[in-house]
Amino acid sequence: MPKQEIPPSPNKFWKNETIVILFNRFYTLLLLLPTAIPHDYSDALTKSILFFEGQRSGRLPKQQRMSWRRNSALNDGKNLKTNLVGGYYDAGDNVKFHFPMAFTATMLAWSSIDFGCYMSQHDFRHNLVALKWATDYLLKTVSQLPNRIFVQVGEAQADHHCWERPEDMDTPRTAYAIDAPNPASDLAGEIAAALASASIAFKQSNPKYSNSLLNKAVQTFQYADSHRGCYTDNPEVNKAVCPFYCSVNGFKDELLWGAAWLRRATGKDYYLKYLVNNRQAFGEDVNYLEFGWDNKIGGLNVLIAKEVFQKNETALAAYKDTAEEMMCAFLPETTGPHMSYTPGGLLYKHGSSQLQNTAALSFLLLTYADHLSKSSQQLHCGNLKFQPDSLRRIVKRQVDYVLGDNPMKLSYMIGYGEQYPRQIHHRGSSIPSVAAHSTPFGCVQGWNIFASPNPNPNILIGAVIGGPGMNDTFIGGRRRSGETEPTTYINAPFVGVFAYFKSNPNFS
């Protein structure tokens, strides 16, 4: 999995105003230029959902389409005398980290809720299947509330010392839990958001399941709010989770995030008051220009803005105002802080695994554009006004870049197009499948495969990998995990984004 990134320093402004003006004009033209390569967004959508079958842990169903995968980790939870079989491996390793898994579920649910109308029945159904694989497991993680939450299965350090396909794992499958009154506000807040958002996604097709999800979301949020603090405050958990999925941004954003999804799922004023009363105290120290598995503030503001646009909920107007400031930061000709782009036009953030940033922010841009369109409004950035399509053009540039319209002329979605990386940092993909080689590969033998120049024998179709660096360069290879490792939380936001352009393929 990608290592925890250090939060970036505050935006630095160019000192030479002439350079700023020239850059802004150049980049504005770049965003407006039509992309050179036509893309099959319907194919990209279908494959982005199929990817999740390659990340499944547990006993696989008969309908499994990623046929090179087999059952794995069937005794998870045994050391704590509970059933924690199932869920997803977060990336190219074999550990189940519940914090990013919950965020993945939230984004799959949000994709279904706001962009499901753009999906075919086939894709919509499979997206719900991918979501349910996550939420079925998350229900297990909070099955012993109000006193216990399960936070992880597998030992990261031991797992990383071996290069083994999940079907052969002989590394420890230790499960970790947090017991009351120990805090877990970040983890519990994200699980609450995942279950609440999923309750909306399943409301029509599976109302009984939807009610179960919502009831457990309420209970999980109560734990989060009653026992405030980070889940990695626990020394044993900290040792197991960090430095991979520590909550660098703290727990307050997840409390607001969980409350926001519960507000949307229930409509109850309790959560509205919670959001109003805690906005300043909980959100003031967190960068509002970010969104991902760790920092929820950007997504929080865009999510809540919908209530202001559609219901004129003035008590929440401050969230909408901050969301608008974020949207303005994507447009170079505005004043104030700005997002960073590579010379080729990719949204860029310092650190590893660039496309997780691109995916999450692209989702927010499309969602906010949708809010503006449905309320017949424009984006106001000081004295400048922008139509919703100005935001959509930025997203279109990101999507086309990922699918191959980039300086490397390379698709960063595995299995899409003819040119995509053949050596990705993913154990199951790189090691011959059980069907091709029934004898288990050992820990040391696996590293021989890792070092091999041969392409991965199993294609992890639909996986969006970490992507290029700040100058659009991409070297690739299994050793460069920041470039070639896929994660569930890169793909999940892209599901909604691909769905939009699948129904609007000629947008320009």
Automatic annotation (TrEMBL):
Q: What is this protein called?
A: Endoglucanase
Biological-process GO terms, alphabetical: cell wall organization; cellulose catabolic process
Q: Which family does it belong to?
A: Belongs to the glycosyl hydrolase 9 (cellulase E) family.
Catalytic site residues? H425
**Which positions fall inside the Glycoside hydrolase family domain?**
41-497
Q: Is Cell wall biogenesis/degradation among the key words of this record?
A: yes
Q: What is its EC number?
A: 3.2.1.4
The protein's matches in SUPFAM superfamilies, at most eight in alphabetical order, are given as:
Six-hairpin glycosidases (SSF48208)
| Substrates-to-products reaction catalysed | Endohydrolysis of (1->4)-beta-D-glucosidic linkages in cellulose, lichenin and cereal beta-D-glucans
Which EC class is the enzyme in? hydrolase
Which source organism? Answer: Cardamine amara subsp. amara
**What keywords appear on the UniProt entry?**
Carbohydrate metabolism, Cell wall biogenesis/degradation, Cellulose degradation, Glycosidase, Hydrolase, Polysaccharide degradation
Q: Name one Pfam family in it.
A: Glyco_hydro_9
GO MF term set: cellulase activity
- Nucleotide-binding among keywords: no
Q: Which InterPro entries match?
A: 6-hairpin_glycosidase_sf, 6hp_glycosidase-like_sf, Glyco_hydro_9, Glyco_hydro_9_His_AS
